[in-house]
Amino acid sequence: MIPDAFSATEEREWIDHMLARLQKREARDGRASDDALRDRAVRLARRYYPEHPECARPQSVRWVDNQQRRWGSCTPSDGSIRLSRRLTMMPSWVIDYVLLHELAHLVHHDHSRPFWDMVGRYTKAERARGYLEGIADAEASDPR
Ligand SMILES: [Zn+2]
Question: What is the CATH number of the domain that holds 39?
């Protein structure tokens, strides 16, 4: 939508500005592709859960837009993992934590002691949990 009152020059500048923004977004989405996410999950699974080769063979790992309340989810029965696209804006060590959390659910379907022992191999697990809780708290207190 281009405001009516724009001159030709302003219109040109506006279009250039919007195109630049679009390109930036495409570049970002490219890095945040489902293929890249799956590769990352497989690498993490091989490194942290070598005794569970099934973790390195998830059926699908993808970004989803419809997950507002949860950062990630896993369906162990079909081996699919979904991460909220909101995570693309967060540090990579936080994304790695969410991936390792969901990958561990392919082995343990609950939040039992053995589950947390697995996740705890990732040294930044506690820090990442604190980071995500902080964001959830900030959002909960946001009047919007
Ligand atoms: Zn969980």
Answer: 3.30.2010.10
Q: Which domain holds residue 20?
A: 1-30
Q: How far is the CA of 117 from the centre of ligand 1 (A)?
A: 13
Question: From ligand 1's centre to the CA of 144, what distance in Å?
Answer: 27
Task: Kindly report, residue by residue over 72-118, the tens digit of the pLDDT.
Answer: 999 999 999 999 999 998 999 999 999 999 999 999 999 999 999 99
Same domain, 97 and 124: yes
Confidence band of 13 (pLDDT split at 50, 70, 90):
confident
Distance 127 CA to ligand 1 centre (A): 16
Do residues 25 and 87 share a domain? no
Residue 43 · residue 70 · CB < 8 Å: no
